[in-house]
Amino acid sequence: MSTPATRDLSAGETSSTSRHHVVIIGSGFGGLFAAREFKGKNVDVTLIAKTGHHLFQPLLYQVATGILSVGEIAPPTRFILRDLKNVKIVLGDVSDIDVTAKKVKYVSGRLDIETSFDSLILAAGANQSYFGNDHFEQYAPGMKTVDDALELRGRILGAFEQAELTTDEVERRRLLTFVIVGAGPTGVEMAGQVAELARNTFKDLYRSIDPSSARVILLDAAPAVLPPFGPKLGDEARRALEKLGVEVQLGAMVSGVDGRGITVKDEAGKERRIESACKIWSAGVSASPLGAIVARQTGAEVDRSGRVRVEKDLSLPGESNIFIVGDMMALDDLPGVAQVAIQGGRYAARQIIAEVEGSSDPTRRKPFRYFDKGSMATVSRFNAVVKIGRIEIDGFLAWIMWLVVHLAYLVGFKSRFTALVSWGMHVMGNQRSQLTSTSQQVYARSALEHIEEAAATVTTFTPPEHVEDDSK
Ligand SMILES: Cc1cc2nc3c(=O)[nH]c(=O)nc-3n(C[C@H](O)[C@H](O)[C@H](O)COP(=O)(O)OP(=O)(O)OC[C@H]3O[C@@H](n4cnc5c(N)ncnc54)[C@H](O)[C@@H]3O)c2cc1C
């Protein structure tokens, strides 16, 4: 619980100048690329983020399946922005934004802190969505954070370990059944990797089980795999997954998830059950609730995914100094992908710089133009799909393109170099150097939740009057 103390860490207080103060919320693609634009500019920037790292979410599945380490995809933000002397980084969970007073409130450790801004860039991204069934989460974690990936890695490896020990054949089948919900890029990549783990990496490693007998099921309520990639690439991806032994079940809506398995309703409304110890959720997202907080104060529209409908210049309607970028914004049906966030973050920062330098005013901003660089997803080793406009590529060439693009966007030389070594080991020798998991990684989150629940019970517990002190 945080202390009631509230400190103002606005730039005016902490620096000797009274320069324009920009607050950026989030160190993901939108926030990081916005911050970089301010290098050497006549502004003070405070970047507030819940985590101390910049997370390359598109490669989380490789951490979950033991190919890459956390450090390779999540370098500390302080290191990345160390040369930007006018950018201050603070670890904090933003809880409120006052649009009229231009103040942001956040909790950092045990402190409640408030800071004022002249301009704000909101880039707090999105969370996993369970479409109103949040209780599914404990049984089928999503993949949005480093904690999620490490927990999933532990659950996947743990299922094989338990299967090796059990003598009950039915239980062994359950432990060796992996269900991935959502056949978008993350679901496809995850299903391909779990299948490759079972069929290739784990070959000859166990004595009582045959890991290659594991069932890997990819489910989706939609009738297609990878819908945004179009039917041709979607079918290619499906064929490649089936060749790896993945069972692709489409038109299958999840109606229940529990510790023992998953219940699925098919298109005719008939329910069936899949007994599975390890379930992975990659089916939907909902934007950060901070969007709704600012929208409520200005009457801006919020869509079904919690994204705020922004103006053509990415500003909050009626508030030209507040920008919303990346997964939190709704504009022209732009997808929730890294490039939208990167380009949006850069654009917002440039508008602020232009105004501070006096070369532009908010009424004359050129609208944001998104340059679509295409989409890509890996299916398995040496196999990917790429769509750039009307160009569709699959197979090895697409996989090389995927490799080059992901190397280019991994932040920092060290991350690129070590990722390249890890990928080399994986593709040449089928090796995964990050197959370590601790029980803390799997259970710590739920253990902490239980401690918090227990603490809440203790603080609200009032002993009955007749209880005697027996401590003497
Ligand atoms: C598993 C996965 C795979 C993906 N694969 C691809 C892909 O292959 N290609 C692609 O283009 N896109 C992919 N995406 C989507 C892409 O990662 C997102 O579109 C992109 O990260 C959005 O950037 P953002 O800056 O809006 O949000 P994010 O990158 O999510 O960053 C949000 C930031 O806000 C911080 N934050 C959140 N709430 C608060 C708060 N209350 N207070 C303080 N800080 C807060 C977070 O800690 C984080 O730093 C994938 C996403 C996932 C989850």
UniProtKB/TrEMBL annotation:
Record has NAD as a keyword: yes
Taxonomic lineage of the native organism: Bacteria, Bacillati, Actinomycetota, Actinomycetes, Mycobacteriales
Alphabetic keyword roster: FAD, Flavoprotein, Membrane, NAD, Oxidoreductase, Transmembrane, Transmembrane helix
GO function terms (MF aspect): NADH dehydrogenase (quinone) (non-electrogenic) activity
Official protein name in the record: NADH:ubiquinone reductase (non-electrogenic)
Keyword Cell membrane: no
Catalytic activity: a quinone + NADH + H(+) = a quinol + NAD(+)
InterPro entries xrefs: FAD/NAD-bd_sf, FAD/NAD-binding_dom, NDH-2
Entry similarity comment: Belongs to the NADH dehydrogenase family.
Transmembrane segments: 396-413
The protein's Enzyme Commission number: 1.6.5.9
Domain FAD/NAD(P)-binding, first and last residues per copy: 21-345
